[in-house]
Design brief:
InterPro entries: SoxD, SoxD_sf. One of its GO terms (molecular function) is sarcosine oxidase activity. It comes from Pelagovum pacificum. This is Sarcosine oxidase subunit delta. Pfam families: SoxD. The protein is of the alpha+beta class. The protein has one domain (3-25, 40-99): Folate-binding superfamily (Folate-binding fold). The protein is built from 2 helices and 6 strands. Strands 3-4-5-6 form a 4-stranded antiparallel sheet, with helices on one face. Strands 1-2 form a two-stranded antiparallel ribbon. A hairpin with a 6-residue loop joins strand 1 and strand 2 (12-14). The longest helix is centred in the C-terminal third of the chain and has 10 residues, at 90-99. The protein starts with a strand and ends in a 10-residue tail after the last helix.
Length: 109
């Protein structure tokens, strides 16, 4: 079972209390962008075998959104942080690099 720490209310919640929200740190596009950019925003998502950054909502708790970094293969959770954060915290990136040398994910690595 997947257990994530909600950084907003401080509770460790299992996946039945949470709602997944898809990939984190997407670049939003505006109404004046070309169709190709809008298509990329809607449909093109990372689906890595390994480290992945995701959005989660503590649905049956505080109701707030947060981000989680986890491994999609082992379900190991590297850490969570508030959704208002534009990039993952440096200490979290360092933790991931220590455990998974050579990992990459977009421009975050």
């Amino acid at each position: 079972m997947l257990i994530l720490h909600c950084p907003c209310c401080g509770i460790d919640a299992d996946e039945t209390e949470l709602t997944p929200g898809g990939e984190a740190h997407l670049t939003r596009v505006g109404p004046d962008t070309p169709d190709e950019a809008f298509e990329g925003y809607l449909f093109m998502r990372e689906n890595p075998r390994g480290v992945h950054f995701e959005r989660w909502r503590h649905a049956y708790g505080c109701g707030k959104w947060f981000h989680a970094a986890r491994c999609t293969v082992t379900l190991e959770v590297f850490g969570t942080y508030p959704a208002q954060t534009a990039k993952p915290p440096a200490d979290l990136l360092q933790t991931i690099s220590d455990k998974r040398p050579g990992w990459t994910w977009r421009d975050l690595a």
